[in-house]
Design a protein that fits this description.
- This protein has 4 helices and 8 strands, in the order αβαβββαββββα.
- The chain has one domain (50-215).
- The radius of gyration is 31 Å and the shape is globular.
- It has a 6-stranded antiparallel sheet, sandwiched between helices. The chain has a two-stranded parallel sheet with strand order 1-2.
- Residues 1-7 and 31-44 have low confidence and may be disordered.
- It has helices at 24-44, 63-66, 121-131, 194-215, and strands at residues 50-51, 74-75, 98-104, 107-116, 135-137, 143-148, 157-163, 179-185.
Length: 233
């Protein structure tokens, strides 16, 4: 069978045929689309996800508080939810210590402690200064705080001490110290910003301290700032 199309010459009335070629601007658009798609996947990374609890640490903290501490991929959870802040005047243990831990896929996202400052503010500050750099926090006249050096297995530590006239059960035979303290730290999580982590620790310490002052029923007028000023990196 003969292919007639290849035998019959083109008619003079037919438009001239141009050789098929890729125009330069076609190639440029294709490269731009490919770059945009590739760049979007690089930034979005749909195979990664972050899961944070709605509430944590005596229901004081939410996702926005924990987000600066989380890496780009993982799950955070509070293994033992802390229901309320235990206070020395309502416990047989005058040295009552409140703890909150939030786990991350690769360690501790957050570790928070509240307890009477039995050792004293100056002793704790001296111990931190001996271990490394101490960055003071400007909290006004009613509180003392700083960002201390990394502790063993942890990152930096935020410490906040609140002037509080609280009571201790008389049968303990102890005199309450003039301050209670809040300590906030956690593991160094890959993919986080050290500066944002330090600020988040300080913000969390202030939020917890404000709730603890209510729980401790301080006899004096507690003075705490509305927010922690920018923490130096």
């Amino acid at each position: 069978m003969v292919d007639v199309a290849h035998i019959i010459p083109p008619s003079p009335d037919d438009p001239p045929r141009r050789p098929s070629r890729v125009r330069p601007w076609h190639a440029a658009v294709s490269l731009m689309v490919a770059a945009a798609v590739g760049g979007g996947l690089w930034a979005w990374k749909p195979w990664q996800s972050v899961e944070l609890p709605e509430h944590a640490c005596w229901s004081l903290l939410g996702k926005d508080d924990l987000k600066p501490l989380a890496g780009p991929d993982g799950t955070a959870r509070e293994p033992v939810p802390s229901e309320h802040i235990e206070t020395p005047m309502k416990s047989a243990n005058a040295a009552t210590r409140n703890d909150c831990v939030v786990w991350w896929s690769s360690g501790y996202l957050l570790d928070v402690n509240i307890l009477p400052a039995w050792k004293g503010v100056d002793a704790d500050r001296a111990a931190d200064a001996e271990a490394g750099k101490v960055t003071p926090l400007d909290l006004g006249p009613g509180a003392v705080g700083w960002i201390g050096p990394p502790e063993e297995h942890f990152g930096p530590t935020a410490r906040l001490y609140v002037r509080c006239d609280f009571e201790i059960r008389s049968d303990t035979g102890q005199t309450p110290p003039p301050y209670f303290g809040v300590r906030v730290t956690g593991d160094v999580i890959d993919g986080t910003s050290p500066g944002k982590v330090r600020q988040a620790y300080a913000d969390i310490a202030l939020k917890v301290a404000r709730a603890a002052a209510t729980a401790y029923e301080c006899g004096n007028r507690v003075q705490l700032p509305a927010a922690v000023p920018g923490v130096p990196s």
